Amino acid sequence: MRTRHAYEHSARRTRTMPTAEQDRTSRRLAWCVAHLLRHAPDHVVVDMTRRLDRPTLKYLCRDEWLAASTVTLLLRHGNAADRGYIARNPRVVGRPLPGLPGPARYARRRTPPELLPVLRAELGRDPEAQPLTTAELAGLLRRHGRRGPRVPLDILALPHELDPEQLIAEHSRLPLPAGSVEAVLLVADLPPRTAGRLLATAAPADDRSWHRPAVRAVRMGRLTHEELVTHLAPARHTLLLGHLPARRSLRWTLPEQAGMQTAVIRALRPLGDDPRLWAELLRHAPGHPGPLPALVAGITDGTLPEPDGAGEADPALTRAVRHLVPTAAQPTGDVERELALASLAVPMESVEEDIRWVRDCLDRGLLTGVDVIRHKLPACWALDEDHWLGDVDHPDRHDHPGAVLAAHAEAYRLLTVALGDDPQAWWRTARTLPDFAGTLPHLLLRVTEGGSVSGRP
After folding, report:
1. For 239-267, what is each residue's pLDDT tens digit?
2. How confident is the model at residue 16 (pLDDT cuts 50, 70, 90)?
3. pLDDT tens-digit profile of 278-309?
4. What is the pTM of this model?
5. Rounded CA gap, 278 and 265, in Å?
6. What is the mean pLDDT of the chain?
7. C-alpha distance from residue 451 to each of 416, 422, 456 (Å)
8. Band (330; pLDDT cuts 50, 70, 90)
9. Which pLDDT does position 395 carry in this prediction?
10. In this predicted model, what pLDDT tens digit does every residue of 122-141 receive, in sequence order?
């Protein structure tokens, strides 16, 4: 026979444990929020995660593919439970962010014995006798950082006293090589503002690894993509990072490239569709020493001085700017294209068949990633490329990167035009997305104008 205490305990458990329907609702909302946050500015990401209830936030941190900037902001503004869930998320492999060997592995390294005599000769004393000062450390990093971060990491493994402000002053006076900057980002616990200032000085012209510190800063969670665009200088480096070619080196993963592209397009938004302003961007970008937002502001205000002509636009910079211009290539096909567009609104008998059809249309040039975002329904499936390209074991394994990047760019454009920077509008979209059966443009019409849009074309 059950006692009164047992009945009360059972009642409390019934009140506190979520039902299966509540659990499914939280999981689906977390999935939709994760995809929306790919395209939202940083302050909207922080606002939206604060609006989520605890079960939904738990599923977001624990189970979803999360963009690099989203992980950084959750780690920065979340509590200990959020950080614990992110650490156990199998889709957030070893983060802050996945990449090459991190601080824990480098901490186990030992300085090779052949390096110490070289450092002793340069310093005029034993580097292990007493800690290196910041000035000594900067001098050694400046001389030994041109071949990647390996030797600078060995130098930073020696006893030293690092004053971040003094290091930034030394870096501003004479820039450190990219390998040394990357090493400092790896092992020094720098706040975001200091990390941004470390990236705000142009790398030497002959440094082929200029991009590595920027990629590392995002991958280590030091900066978000938006913060990187704000601080990184010169502007041409930011534009090149928005369309960084794939090579055998430290490069963006596909989701990171999409996030960087979105951040750069957001900074270029004041240029609009005006070809004259874009031509001015291409004319001033090679020689502008400041960050990209300052360059864009100067172009729109007409306050930039005439370029001195010392810097000519290289082919990579021209390709990057043309890739970021808000124009889309017209796909081929007439009747077949119309049928392909109509098929996006008609679900196949199985998900696998639907994926095969979309991939075939992409291969034949009948559809683009832009078409998928505009016409595929439901909207939550269009935002998730795994629903039209197939599941992958890693987010960088998609074999249609062009379609993924085009889809991300179009989703950002639609969401930004409709929602702007209003956190409340983004939150209404997130709440509506899980149960909405129409396309993304129809969803945004409902959110911004209200009412049903099922009868609209």
Report:
1. 999 988 777 778 888 889 999 999 999 99
2. low
3. 999 999 998 888 999 999 999 999 888 888 76
4. 0.87
5. 12
6. 84
7. 21, 20, 11
8. low
9. 58
10. 888 888 888 999 999 999 99
Given a contact cutoff of 8 angstroms between Cβ atoms, the answer to whether 139 and 150 are in contact is no
Contacts of 292 (CB under 8 A, 6+ apart): 229, 232, 235, 238, 239, 264, 267, 268
> What confidence category does residue 20 fall into, taking pLDDT thresholds of 50, 70 and 90?
confident
Residues 6+ apart with CB under 8 A from 235: 285, 288, 290, 291, 292, 294, 295
Q: What percent of the chain has pLDDT over 90?
A: 44
> Cα(181)–Cα(232) distance, rounded to whole angstroms?
13
Q: If DSSP states are collapsed to H, E and C, what string results for the chain?
A: CCCHHHHHHHHHHHHHCCCHHHHHHHHHHHHHHHHHCCCCCHHHHHHHHHHCCHHHHHHHHHHCCCCHHHHHHHHHHCCHHHHHHHHCCCCCCCCCCCCCCCHHHHHCCCCCCCHHHHHHHHHCCCCCCCCECHHHHHHHHHHHCCCCCHHHHHHHCCCECCCHHHHHHHHHHCCCCHHHHHHHHHHCCCCHHHHHHHCCCCCCCCCCCCCHHHHHHHHCCCCCHHHHHHHCCCHHHHHHHCCCCCCCCCCCCHHHHHHHHHHHHHHCHHHCCCHHHHHHHHHHHHHCCCCHHHHHHHHHHCCCCCCCCCCCCCHHHHHHHHHHCCCCCCCCCCHHHHHHHHHCCCCCCCHHHHHHHHHHHHHCCCCCHHHHHHHCCCHHHHHCCHHHHCCCCCCCCCCCHHHHHHHHHHHHHHHHHHHCCCHHHHHHHHHHHHHCCCCHHHHHHHHHHCCCCCCCC
